[in-house]
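W.,

You were right to be curious about this one. When I first looked at the sequence I had no strong expectations either way, so I just let the prediction run and decided to look at it fresh. Below is the sequence, 376 residues in total, followed by the output.
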Amino acid sequence: MQKIDWSILRRSVNGDLTEKEKQEVEAWRNESGENERYYQKMKNFFTQEKSKEVDVRKNLKKFEQRTYGKQRKIFIGLCKYVAVFICLVGTIVLWQKFDTVQPEVNSLALAPGKDQAVLYTGSGKAIVLESRLRTNIVISDSLFVQQDSNVLNYEGIEAKGKMVDEFHLMRVPRGGEFSMKLSDGTMVHLNAETDLRYPVRFSGEERRVVLSGEAFFDVAKSGTPFIVELNGFEVKVLGTRFNINAYEGESRFETTLERGSVEINVKGKTLLLEPGEQAVLTNTGELSKQKVDVSLYTAWKDGYFVFEDERLEDVMNTVARWYDVNLFYQNPGVKEIRINGNISRYKDFSVLLEKIEKLDIVHFDIKGNNITVIDK
C-alpha cells in the first residue's frame, strides 16, 4: 500500500499543493476506501477548526506572559499511524484541541515532577535539595554554596586549597528538575533523570562539564571555551544558549542552538551550528544537522511539553521521566503513532492520558506506576 506524507494531506485542505502533489493525494485516496474515509474525516475536521488552529510558538509566548489564574488551553493531535504487525499501512491526520477538563481516569493520581535534586560533593557527601528554600548549603568548613529556591548558585564562590579542584555532581531524578549557576555565571536548567558533573570553580584554559540527560545552557561569555562532554562527543562554545538532549539508551543525541554558535566534535569530525540549527548524532555514529523550530526543543524549561510529529514511544519516554512511571506496550506497533500538540508539564499525568485516549487509537491500563499502552 502506498504511503503519503501527512503534511501533504494537511496542505491539501487549503488547496496549497503542486500538481505533482495533487496527483499523489488523488492516487492515495483512490487506493482504498479506508484512505478516503481518513481523508474526508481529516478534511471535515480541519475545515471546521481552521479558524481555531493553535500555533505552538504563540502558545509559548502566551505562556511566558500569562498571570496566575489565567486559563490555558491545550491541544494534542495525531498525525500519522504506521502499523508494524498488520498489513494495512495508512496515514491518519487528526488535530484536536481540548479545553482543560477534569479527567475521567480516576485510577491514576500521579502528580507532575517538581524541583528536586541530590548534590554529591567531592568527598561523597550527598545533600538532598528541595525547592522553596533560601539557605547556604554547607559543603565543608571552608566552603558553602547558596541555594535560592530552585537554583543552586556557585557564582563568586570562594574556595581554598584543594577545594578549588573539587568536582561536584548534581543528580536530578526521574520526576524532578533543578537549576544551577556555575562559578562563571553560566545558568544550567536540568531536566528529569539528568546528571551534571562540574568543578566547584573553573580554572585553567577551559570550562568543562560532563552531562548525561537533558539540559539547557545559557553560557556566560568568557575568553576560555566552555565544553560540555557527553558520551561519545563534546560541544564547545564561548558564550551562547543551547539545549542538549543526550539520554543514555536513546537512538539519537540532539544539540539545538538558540543563540550564538557551537562546535560539535565527534571522534575527529567537527560540525558548526548557527542559531536555529540542530545537530543530531545517531547511535550508529552518523552526525548531521538540520534547521528546526528551536522553541519545540526548549519548551520544557518553560513548563511545556511540545511535540511535532513525534513517535508515541518518544513522547511517552519523555513524559515517563517527568512523572516517574514505567511503560509497557501490548502491541509494539502503537509506538509508531505520530503525535502533535502541547500541554503543561504541571498537569497531573491523568490529564495527559485523557487527551491521548480521546484520539480513540490507544488506551492505557494503569496499575500503580506501571502504564501499559494498548492498541484499540
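Here's what jumped out at me. Residues 54-108+303-375 form a domain with the Phage tail protein beta-alpha-beta fold fold (CATH 3.55.50.30). And, maybe more interesting for your project: Confidence is low (pLDDT under 50) at residues 48-108.

Coffee later to discuss?

I.
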